From TrEMBL:
Phylogenetic lineage: Bacteria, Bacillati, Bacillota, Bacilli, Bacillales
Annotated GO MF terms: acyltransferase activity, transferring groups other than amino-acyl groups
UniProt keyword list: Acyltransferase, Transferase
The protein, known as: GCN5-like N-acetyltransferase
InterPro entries, sorted: Acyl_CoA_acyltransferase, GNAT_dom, YpeA/RimI_acetyltransf
Keyword DNA damage: no
Keyword Transferase carried by entry: yes
Pfam families for this protein: Acetyltransf_9 (PF13527)
Domain N-acetyltransferase: 5-154
Length: 290
């Protein structure tokens, strides 16, 4: 085996991008080409990779975004797409790539990631500590409301994607307590690849709602708007009388509804670079998770 080459931020290199996508597909069952072709792979997403004979064989990706914590903005890096081809494992490649990322982004407030079950002992070696989140939910009793002004969008249609991206780029953080800003590219990945048939625009509230139904449970993944909206009003329009429970996959700000909280083991690992105090209880928004 010849000496490996280190490359980063190579999205415009067709050959390397194709190899990267191939490794991501074989490792996670996902691919990034559609995201790239729609223009949502920007400089905020930077792969750090080792290449052997023109093929990407190990990677650690950087996602640049802003965390909103108690109404203050903090600069953060979220690590994602950590993968190594099976033929190159147990050679310390992921460790070397992590070292490069940590060296390049030593000035941010937070570096964090969501680990998978098989590598929970890997990230503490770099100073990451596990952090427990909370899951918000509520019992729901439907109050009838007119369903007028609810428009279903299609994440496979360019016009609808452009509409969503424009709204997302100007959105306020979903929560002043704990939320994200500047993460619209991550959101668009979900709109393209995960929730493309779960997008609803509420004309009166001027907000986009991402939600899925599971029997009598409604999973609310995000509410995207340029101004504050009232959760109670949204639920009256998107939840019918068969829904008995709402699960929120982000940290809500709305105090007009009673919410239950339960510990949520998301395998979140955080490296606090500047000593910023995290809230005692919070939920990272699902649609900003790399």
């Amino acid at each position: 085996m010849q000496e490996l080459s280190f490359v980063k931020n190579y999205k415009e290199n067709f050959s390397l991008r194709t190899s990267f996508n191939r490794l991501a597909a074989s490792t996670f069952g996902i691919q990034f080409e559609t995201w790239y072709q729609h223009g949502f792979w920007t400089e905020k997403y930077q792969p750090y990779s080792y290449v052997d004979n023109g093929q990407v064989i190990a990677n650690v990706s950087v996602n640049l975004l802003t965390l909103v914590i108690n109404n203050e903005e903090k600069q953060a890096v979220q690590i994602g797409t950590v993968m190594t081809h099976p033929d190159y494992r147990n050679q310390g490649l992921a460790r070397k790539l992590m070292d490069k990322v940590l060296a390049d982004f030593s000035q941010v407030d937070f570096i964090y990631l969501f680990a998978n079950q098989t590598v929970l002992d890997f990230y503490p070696k770099f100073g990451f500590a596990p952090v427990e989140e909370v899951q918000f939910s509520m019992d729901y009793c439907h109050i009838p409301a007119e369903q007028l002004g609810v428009r279903k969008l299609d994440g496979s249609k360019p016009d609808d994607l452009t509409f969503v991206h424009t709204l997302a780029a100007e959105r306020i953080s979903g929560s002043k307590h704990f939320g994200t800003k500047g993460s619209e590219e991550l959101l668009m990945f979900y709109c393209l690849m995960v929730f493309n048939q779960d997008l609803y625009y509420l004309e009166e509230e001027k907000c986009l709602v991402i939600c899925q139904r599971e029997n009598t449970v409604l999973h609310l993944y995000d509410v995207i708007s340029e101004e504050k909206v009232v959760l109670k009003d949204i639920l009256r329009k998107i939840a019918d009388n068969s829904i008995t429970k709402i699960i929120l996959h982000y940290h809500p700000d709305d105090n007009e509804v009673k919410l239950d909280k339960q510990p949520y083991q998301s395998k979140l690992f955080v490296k606090n670079m500047t000593g910023v105090k995290l809230p005692k209880e919070f939920k990272h928004p699902f649609t900003s998770q790399a």
